[in-house]
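Justification of computing resources. Each target in the renewal requires a structure prediction run like the one illustrated here; the chain below, 258 residues long, is used simply to show the kind of job we budget for.
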Amino acid sequence: MSESLFDVKDKVVFVTGGSRGIGFMIAKAYVKAGAHVYICSRNSEVCDEAAAGLRKLGECASLPADLSQMSEIERVCLELQTRESGLDVLVNNAGTTWGSSLPSFPEKGWDKVISLNLKSPFFLIQSFLEMLAAKATKGDPARVINIGSVDGLRTPLWDNYSYSVSKAGLHHLTKTLATPLAKRHVNINSIAPGPFVTDMMAPMIESMGEERISEKVLLNRLGVYEDMAGVALFFGSRASAYITGTILPVDGGMTAAV
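Resulting structure tokens:
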């Protein structure tokens, strides 16, 4: 029974920002579990290379696109429609950050982050809605999984103003869209990761040291692949079919300690 509860075999999954970091962890988890996975990132070469590596574990295809552009969102949606009759899981993971002090924080650092982290997920959901609803039922809903951040739940440790605001907005968007999506048998939830060992965290790890960052986490370590894989599979499987509109911190107790 436990295996069937978390089964995602043959589900069609689209992961934005799936070529590295947390997106790659999620894509890898679904590929290993037998899903048909598509990954998307702006750099086509990196996206193709990541998909080729994941194909050693199962089914994965590369659909590169610059999701900060509306035309690219529409293009990638149309391309997926030519390949699949429906979409079971949409993972909105693609994101960026910008760090600068308050007096020097630039407009481009605000607009770039808000656009990709908050605007793009909304229009991806809008564009993929018919594909998500195509096979969804009351008992087996389609899923949207938004990747937020603990920085959207609490005051951040670093001067990443637009990033933390964008993630707080994404969390609220998750709650806001739960009602209209439920009418189409689509569940939507957010994962709010704490510090994970990823490329995005690399500059902070280099400047502060992993030990110092880990001191901010109750479990006294950074997150790794297995920590994200289990939660991502949970939100895409029968095990979470009665859950929508929630934000789940996956942060080693970081927000609980605040």
